[in-house]
Amino acid sequence: MKVSVIVPTYNRVKQLKNLLSSFSKLREKIPCEIIIVDDHSEDGTESLLEQWVLKEHRFDARFIRLKNNSGPAKVRNRGTAIAQGDLVAFTDSDCYVHPLWIKHLSANLIKNDEVIGVGGSVLPQSKDIFSQYYTFHRILEPPKSLKYLVSANCIFRKDKVLEVGGFDEDISKPGGEDVGLSFKLYTKNYRFGFEKKAIVYHDYRRSLRDFKKTFFSYGFGCRIVTEKYFGGA
Amino acid sequence: MTQILTSDYSDVNAPKWTYDTLKPPKISLYNLYKDIKWHLSLYRNAKLPLKVRIQFVYLRIIQRINYNKGWKEGGKKFNK
To answer: Do the beta carbons of residue A141 and residue A117 sit within 8 Å?
Structure first.
């Protein structure tokens, strides 16, 4: 089964370089393509990606640049729409991946007919207190109930994502759009798995201001998807 | 070197969360107290250093307040 990796990015050129470098070190299972969807960055991301597609030969390296800043949900949906793989894997541009990331993530999904999506582990790039907090509380990992996956590290059967219309585009900022997709799938009796060995390393923001903004966004987005799919929760 | 620890708890057991739908309990002194008490027990079981436990409690309060604020604002947007 072919795997497409889709990564939204917006004004994260330094972190994106690390991610692209980690893609070039993927081993044992190589995606058929990696699609970076640039949400109209203005920090040199476009020229970084122009050079990347010329240099990368192990897989089909593609990027598209949106004409307007549209938010991660729309960006991921654009990537999914043009993906050629049977499976679509997602991570974020402030992550970098373990060399066996795709191997473990896709293997779990392929061998397990009962699930249509799998989430993986998210470990921190740094050891500051914010990174420790997010990691200890598994903020970016699926809950044990596996009612949703987190787009920092997950893979789905592409046809199922398209079946439910992808990520919720009415959530224009990061937070809740991945939960919304998962809820749509879950309410159709599709189920998810978890693969601990599929690892990405996340660069958590290290300020109290960003910590507050992040959880505000999570609460905001999760309220919208909870209202939509569980009606007046 | 700081060891990166992860908890092994089930969020479903955290007090008063209808976790499956991510709906938080209301912010009140009593609810915060229950929440922090539950998390302190978690941190104790994980043998986190005292300094880290104190920092985590502080961040947990910040998390709860801001998540609840976002939850409220999300409801206003949805119901517009």
So the answer is: no
- The DSSP 8-state label assigned to residue A69 in this structure reads -
pTM, two decimal places: 0.91
**What is this model's ipTM?**
0.90
pLDDT tens per residue, range A146-205:
889 999 999 999 999 999 999 999 888 888 899 999 999 998 999 999 999 999 999 999
What is the spatial distance between Cα A140 and Cα A152, in angstroms, rounded to a whole number? 7
Chain B interface test: which of A127, A131, A132 (most B C-beta within 10 Å)? A132
Nearest CB to B4; choose among A127, A179, A228: A127
d(CA A221, CA B74): 6
A228 touches B at CB < 8 Å:
yes
Is B18–A233 a contact, with Cβ atoms under 8 angstroms apart?
Answer: yes
Residue B61: per-residue pLDDT: 95
Of A134, A224, A227, A153, nearest to A195 by C-alpha is A153
